Task: structure prediction
Amino acid sequence: MNSKQKELKEEIKSLTDRIRNSKKELDELYKNRPVTNDKEKLFNYWVKIQKLYKERDTCRYEFRHKHITASLLRGTPYERIERTVADNNNPNWQYINQLVKSYTLIPEMENEATVCVDSK
Result:
């Protein structure tokens, strides 16, 4: 495992912690919901909840795609990473390809033709 793949692994761990913490924070917010008619307090409460949901969803998106990237870099076929996926929930393959390029050590040789020479 090269240094970039280790970096990817650490990012995945960090995302896991952030997802877990945001879930705990949401649970606490729901338990301690303000019982008041003060519209400003209720508004601030719901804004805070929406921010946590947005952060959690962003982290989930990043986690899913970085997890797929790390697994593909290790040689695991996609079918073993996600066995069943709903039609409307396919991963963003352009983003995954971008991540694969950024986490591999071999630089891409763009605009260069690959020549295969036959030994005969």
